[in-house]
Amino acid sequence: MTDRICTFKKASGERCGSPPLRDGDFCLWHDPQHADEVTEARKIGGSRRKRERTVAVAYDFEGLTSTDSIRRLIEIAVVDTLSLDNSVNRNRTLAYLAQSAIKLLGQGEHTRIASRHCNQALKPRLVAGGRR
Ligand SMILES: [Zn+2]
Question: Residue ranges per domain, the chain?
Answer without folding.
Answer: 1-58, 62-131
